[in-house]
Amino acid sequence: MALVAVLRGPGFVWEVLNIDESDFFLNGQSLVEGGDAYVSFGANTWARGLLKRNFPSQDPTAIEIAEWIRHHTYKDEKIYVCGYFNPVYILADRRPASRFVNPSPVVGDFDPLHVPPAFDASPFIVQRDAEMLVRDLTDAPCAWFVDTAPSNLHGWSHFPLALVPVLEAHVRSSYVLAAEVANARIYQRLTADAAPAAPGTSRHGG
């Protein structure tokens, strides 16, 4: 087909592709302009990465929390990051313990950076989702619970643990505070056969 197209000329190409020649060149122009924008965006992205700015995975607080998790938990243990910052899971190389990868849907599904300083989310609590989250943490089970509100990671101080009583009660009854890292509180699940990890000690991280 390619050889026939060459022999018969460009008109044959337009006929086979069932497109108008002028449309082809207009689309080609759009493609070039789009490519230029893509290259510009890519250059900006690379520059931001090299300068270590603006990317979630470069947040110092997230990195510090994730590093602690990597070095003080087992790789097959599931964790829950109570906050609006999913990159912690990736940085820590740990799986989330709930279908609610972050609890934002439980408290109205707001981006914390988009709400005013005195924002009260209590009228937006979804009790059904809160109870589902607690069931997930119980069934998984969730070995480690990270409360990022005290660290204000991505503005999560707007949504303290006490805002969701059923979740707070679960954490208080099923976990013990193991460490405070970058002001975030990291809780370890209480089990009959495992003592809480001592802060600063390593467990089979990686």
Explain what the structure shows.
This protein is 42% helix and 12% strand. A 4-stranded mixed beta sheet has the order 1-2-4-3. A hairpin with a 2-residue loop joins β3 and β4. The longest helix has 30 residues, at 21-50. By secondary structure, the protein is an alpha+beta fold. The model is unreliable at 1-7 (pLDDT under 50). The chain starts with a helix and ends in a 17-residue tail after the last strand. The chain contains 7 helices and 4 strands. The chain has 2 domains: 2-50; 56-189.
Brief overview, please?
With 206 residues, the chain is of the alpha+beta class. The protein is built from seven helices and four strands; from the N terminus they run ααααβααβαββ.
Helix-strand blueprint:
Layout: H1 2-8, H2 10-17, H3 21-50, H4 60-72, E1 78-82, H5 87-92, H6 127-139, E2 142-147, H7 165-174, E3 175-181, E4 184-189
Parallel strand pairs: 1-2
Antiparallel strand pairs: 2-4, 3-4
